[in-house]
């Protein structure tokens, strides 16, 4: 039987962690863009848009990420799109991230005093102008800490994509366990890798929040 | 190629789905009770004046909150047997969920505790109450009332997160969906139905908790 040194295991896990990081970045960036559109729809003066955005958010916050991934994985081929674990994972996580970010940001938009809406409306600004020049700049400031905090959930969410066959650090851990029969060590290391990725994000979210509270 | 949906073939598997829903509800119920209890203990320890205790609990909270539930589950189910701790699927699932919810609810409840006005604690002390008595009769109730919506959200997240327990063959709702699609080869329909059931469970859970909250905290729960 082959022997695996600790370094063999760790180096392979770290190589797989690249994909965890890359998928997290893709999901966070594209989810952020989609989330912004969703947010605008959610607070827009057009009722059907508001309802649709609200429904989207409710559904994605009320169902498991695993089910969302499975549905994307099995639904895309039904509408004629060839899919891989990669695309399904990216699409699924993007939708998941968009829903949560839109809801977080809605809270920030609502924290902007109502007088700001009224003042900008009395200057004959249209809704897009109000959002662009008055509301979003103020909401953005308070949105930073919770957004950074949520990025931790995105990184942890990528672990679930291992179930639809995307090879990131959790899946790599399972594969290495099957070869080495050392689940305690391997999953322990996998956990530490996630911790190394997430803890700095958690800390900076906390620091940003403290800074914001001091400024106010 | 047009795909024709066929949800009727799922009817044959109604008992499997009912079992799956029941297991998900059961797992969630048990781990909610134990997890929130752990969270209350953890929050008490974290706000206590005994420094080493506060540090140990703090480390536990950070470790759990910064690693994925799936990895925690795998570590418990596949990793612990090498220490001689062998758990059945459902035991591992419950343990993982309790440990996970315990960490999050420690943080949530701690926030509620720290929002207690100082005067109330002093008032309790001036009535001759001991520390634990003040915690039990003065601090805890209003603290839980304040953070009830946040706690509800976290319990919903844990319930939804329990879907990955199918990976260690705990026979909950997503396991049922997986089982069905491996028999009738209609994965989209099976997962779609399971997703709808999860959504219904999440809505029901929120509703039940707001009802409990209104009953338990007469002065009303902070609004979400």
From TrEMBL, chain A:
It is found in: Cell inner membrane; Cell membrane. Belongs to the binding-protein-dependent transport system permease family. HisMQ subfamily. Keywords: Cell membrane, Membrane, Transmembrane, Transmembrane helix, Transport. This is Amino acid ABC transporter permease. The keyword ATP-binding does not apply. SUPFAM superfamilies: MetI-like (SSF161098). Residues 17-205 form the ABC transmembrane type-1 domain. The keyword Membrane applies. PANTHER family: BLR6398 PROTEIN, MEMBRANE COMPONENT OF AMINO ACID ABC TRANSPORTER. PROSITE patterns: ABC_TM1. InterPro entries: AA_ABC_transptr_permease_3TM, ArtM/GltK/GlnP/TcyL/YhdX-like, MetI-like, MetI-like_sf. It comes from Azospirillum endophyticum. The chain crosses the membrane at residues 20-43, 55-79, 85-105, 184-202. Pfam families: BPD_transp_1. It is a multi-pass membrane protein.
UniProtKB/TrEMBL annotation, chain B:
Belongs to the binding-protein-dependent transport system permease family. HisMQ subfamily. PROSITE patterns: ABC_TM1. Residues 21-209 form the ABC transmembrane type-1 domain. InterPro entries: AA_ABC_transptr_permease_3TM, ArtM/GltK/GlnP/TcyL/YhdX-like, MetI-like, MetI-like_sf. Keywords: Cell membrane, Membrane, Transmembrane, Transmembrane helix, Transport. It is a multi-pass membrane protein. The chain crosses the membrane at residues 20-41, 53-78, 190-209. The lineage of its organism: Bacteria, Pseudomonadati, Pseudomonadota, Alphaproteobacteria, Rhodospirillales. It is found in: Cell inner membrane; Cell membrane. This is Amino acid ABC transporter permease. Its main location: membrane. The keyword Nucleotidyltransferase does not apply.
């Amino acid at each position: 039987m082959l022997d695996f040194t600790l370094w063999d295991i760790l180096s392979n896990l770290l190589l797989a962690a690249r994909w965890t990081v890359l998928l997290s970045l893709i999901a966070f960036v594209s989810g952020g863009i989609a989330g912004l559109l969703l947010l605008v729809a959610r607070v827009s003066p057009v009722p059907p848009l508001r309802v649709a955005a609200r429904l989207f958010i409710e559904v994605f916050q009320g169902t498991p990420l695993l089910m969302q991934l499975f549905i994307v994985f099995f639904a895309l081929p039904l509408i004629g799109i060839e899919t891989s674990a990669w695309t399904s994972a990216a699409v699924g996580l993007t939708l998941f991230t968009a829903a949560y970010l839109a809801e977080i940001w809605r809270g920030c938009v609502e924290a902007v005093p109502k007088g700001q809406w009224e003042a900008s409306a009395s200057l004959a600004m249209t809704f897009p102008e109000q959002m662009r020049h008055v509301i979003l700049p103020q909401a953005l400031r308070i949105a930073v800490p919770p957004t950074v905090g949520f990025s931790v959930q995105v990184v942890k969410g990528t672990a679930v994509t291992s179930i639809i066959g995307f090879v990131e650090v959790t899946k790599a851990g399972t594969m290495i366990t099957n070869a080495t029969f050392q689940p305690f060590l391997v999953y322990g290391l996998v956990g530490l890798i996630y911790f190394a990725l997430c803890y700095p994000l958690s800390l900076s979210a906390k620091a940003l929040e403290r800074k914001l509270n001091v400024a106010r | 190629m047009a795909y024709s949906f066929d949800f009727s073939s799922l009817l044959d598997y109604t008992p499997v789905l009912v079992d799956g829903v029941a297991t998900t509800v059961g797992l969630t119920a048990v781990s909610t009770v134990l997890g929130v209890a752990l969270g209350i203990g953890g929050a008490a320890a974290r706000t206590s004046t005994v420094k080493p205790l506060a540090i140990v609990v703090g480390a536990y909270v950070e470790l759990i909150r910064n690693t994925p539930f799936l990895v925690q589950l795998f570590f418990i189910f596949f990793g612990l047997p090498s220490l001689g701790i062998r758990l059945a699927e459902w035991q591992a699932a419950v343990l993982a969920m309790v440990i996970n919810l315990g960490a999050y609810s420690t943080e949530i409840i701690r926030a509620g505790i720290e929002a207690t006005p100082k005067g109330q604690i002093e008032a309790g002390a001036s009535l001759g109450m001991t520390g634990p008595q003040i915690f039990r009769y003065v601090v805890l109730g209003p603290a839980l009332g304040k953070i009830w919506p946040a706690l509800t959200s976290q319990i919903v997240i844990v319930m939804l997160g329990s879907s990955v327990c199918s990976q260690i063959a705990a026979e909950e709702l997503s396991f049922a969906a997986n089982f069905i699609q491996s028999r009738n080869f209609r994965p989209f329909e099976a997962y779609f139905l399971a997703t709808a059931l999860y959504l219904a469970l999440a809505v029901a859970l929120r509703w039940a908790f707001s009802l409990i909250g209104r009953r338990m905290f007469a002065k009303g729960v902070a609004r979400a």
